[in-house]
Amino acid sequence: MAKREILAPSMLATLFVYTIIPWVNFDGIHFLMFHFEQHRFEFLFMAFETSTHQLIYIVLTLFIGLILTLNFTLSRFFCGYYCPSALATIIHLKFKNPFVLFAVIFSLAFLLAFSTVAYFSPAYELLIHFKEFGMAAIFVGIIATLFTSIFLLFRGWYCSILCPYYFISAILPQEEKQTFEFKDKESCIECNKCVKICPVDDLDIKNGFDERCVQCGLCEIACEDVMMKHSNKHSLISKREKDKSPLNNFSKNGLVIGIIVFVIMIGIVYFLLDNSLLDYCYFENKVLYR
Ligand code: SF4
Ligand code: SF4
């Protein structure tokens, strides 16, 4: 258990950065904001007037670019160290009472949902929508419910089938995807606790590499419990020594490709901002905010 608790700070730091960014603004212009209501893209405290069409393309470009950059640099380590789903895994281990577990998971889901919507509608305005029970508030509620059900019921299934990050990581040719290894076959008592606890269906870490592994570390913890009781030994499954620090998990080649992807992504966004071809398409978004 202790090993996973050490990982919690990297996940909490990611969550903190994700939730704080929508609040950061200078004179009303945000660090990053896709302001659909005002037809404005705000970045680095600068505001660019855009059409709705341009904004949609910018959101998609940045989203795909971010996933690609993270995939090339962090690969599956992102799943185990930084993804909120991994934080949900730790919460599952810490809180056994179902009511407390639900309350903590729902709070996490709500925070994530609120922050996600706050990238598209300023956070302080969102608070007002909450007071008035506006459309944006309902939207936050729907996303929070979706996150809660993923974290409570479909975590492994979502991670290995639906997650766009996983989809791209599965098709990219990268070697360093698996960090957990099964080391001591002779000591294994074949209890299969590691297989039963794994959130991914039919994944047996004892058979070696499987790129569906979401790096959650539950198998390591399950085996630690079994082995401690059975023979006072440590887990037969563990992270490879070189993978134990999140800082070691950057792939050098991936970092170069990630930087290239990032530069291309910024180039596309610049092109979209500078291109008047899309300007004709203005939708009236205000109805979303009533
Ligand atoms: S939990 Fe440990 S002892 Fe049990 S089957 Fe898995 S590796 Fe073997
Ligand atoms: S093999 Fe272990 S680390 Fe990988 S998903 Fe299953 S339980 Fe998590």
Question: Could you walk me through the main structural features you see in this protein, from its secondary elements to its overall organization?
Answer:
- The chain is mainly α and 290 residues long.
- It has helices at residues 2-20, 52-74, 77-81, 84-94, 98-118, 123-131, 135-152, 155-162, 164-171, 193-197, 218-231, 252-274, and strands at 25-26, 29-30, 32-35, 40-43, 46-49, 180-182, 237-239.
- It folds into 2 domains: 2-175 and 257-278, no CATH class; 180-239, no CATH class.
- It contains 12 helices and 7 strands.
- The strands form 3 sheets. Strands 3-4-5 form a 3-stranded antiparallel beta sheet, with no helix packed on it.
- Strand 3 and strand 4 (40-43) form a beta hairpin.
- Helix 5 (98-118) packs across helix 7 and helix 6 (123-131) packs across helix 7 (135-152).
- It is globular.
How would the blueprint of this fold be written?
Blueprint: H1 2-20, E1 25-26, E2 29-30, E3 32-35, E4 40-43, E5 46-49, H2 52-74, H3 77-81, H4 84-94, H5 98-118, H6 123-131, H7 135-152, H8 155-162, H9 164-171, E6 180-182, H10 193-197, H11 218-231, E7 237-239, H12 252-274
Antiparallel strand pairs: 1-2, 3-4, 4-5, 6-7
The structure holds iron/sulfur cluster (2 copies).
Strand content: 5-15%
Along the chain, the helix and strand elements come as HEEEEEHHHHHHHHEHHEH
Structural domains: how many: 2
Can you count the beta strands? Answer: 7
Mean pLDDT: 79
Global shape: globular
* Helix content, binned percent: 55-70%
**Rg, alpha carbons:** 21 Å
* Spatial ordering of strands, largest sheet: 3-4-5
Low-confidence stretches: 278-290
